[in-house]
Amino acid sequence: MDKFVSSWYNDQSLPESYIFPPHERPGKLLVPRCNTVPVIDLSDTRTNLVHQILKASQEFGLFQVVNHGVPPNIMSETMSLFHKFFELPAEDKASLTVYTNDPKRCKLVTSTLDYDREKIHLWRDVLRHPCHPDCIEFWPRKPLRYREVVAACSIEAKKLGLQILELLCEGIGIEHGYFEHELTEDLLLGANHYPPCPDPSLTLGIPKHFDPDILTILLQEHISGLQVLKDGEWIGVRPIPNAFVVNIGYILQVISNNKLKGAEHRVVTNSSDHRISVVFCMNPAGNSNIEPAKSVVTATNPPLCRGFQFKEFVDNFYSMEGDADLALQPFK
Ligand code: OGA
Ligand code: NI
């Protein structure tokens, strides 16, 4: 079988190894694409924005932003670039699949980096790489203009992320600039391709998870698939032209000492359309110290955990198969 689900999805019924256990399957139930995920207009007044973003981050852990100032052509060029990327012939992508531990390198895999060990595979291909300028030499050369387009989009995504973090700092009473340096030093790109799936009721693009980062800025198109868990119910995140989806990462929940809610989310597949999403994950440097911010800890709201290095958490996260609560446990 060809390596990538992007290449063989069309001539297969769903292989056994992609079938999730019954309690995790999305089932036939159609979750309505609903309007309740907050949409925030970033051109609103600062006072309103602080209030709205705080409320959305406490209630959903996830929201969309419009009028964010990122030029629409940068967003559309990025999406069309990744369409072309995933359509490249397998031989053009082969060099990106070589197993390497080097964190600076690009990695393109079906499902996850743990493909060989995992019991169930995810219905997606994903390309990951750091966005730091030192790593650009390792980025794909094809399609043409990859480096130029992705660099421009990653700069915008980081700027937007920092702007949102500033509003959140103001909302929960963390000092200005808290996230500006070490805590958002590593921006990681993940480009997901979910090809049409023979049976979306049995499998998932990504099962329920928290992003193990500070904040994730996500670019999607008109195809739905992303869902967020709210009060025990899965809610579809309605695609809105030119919007970014923003979700609170688990590490931000920790730093806020549970004042903000990390978003638990998942991705369902569909039988007719290719879906591509591009996520920019704002990550702390590996050796940065993560702890509940001193300014949000009080006698009545004691720290939920001790301080730890971000890389210790990430190691736990991967050895716990992506369970963020278990990964935090040793630091409690
Ligand atoms: C992720 C993720 C959502 C999507 O990559 O962590 O949650 O819509 N992606 O692809
Ligand atoms: Ni995610």
TrEMBL record:
Q: Where is the Fe2OG dioxygenase domain?
A: 184-284
Q: Pfam families given for it?
A: 2OG-FeII_Oxy, DIOX_N
Q: Which domain of life is it from?
A: Eukaryota
* Annotated keywords: Iron, Metal-binding, Oxidoreductase
InterPro entries listed in its UniProt record: DIOX_N, IPNS-like_FE2OG_OXY, IPNS-like_sf, Oxoglu/Fe-dep_dioxygenase_dom, Plant_2OG-oxidoreductases
Keyword Iron listed: yes
Cited PROSITE patterns: FE2OG_OXY
Q: Which GO terms describe its molecular function?
A: metal ion binding; oxidoreductase activity
Similarity section: Belongs to the iron/ascorbate-dependent oxidoreductase family.
Q: What is this protein called?
A: Fe2OG dioxygenase domain-containing protein
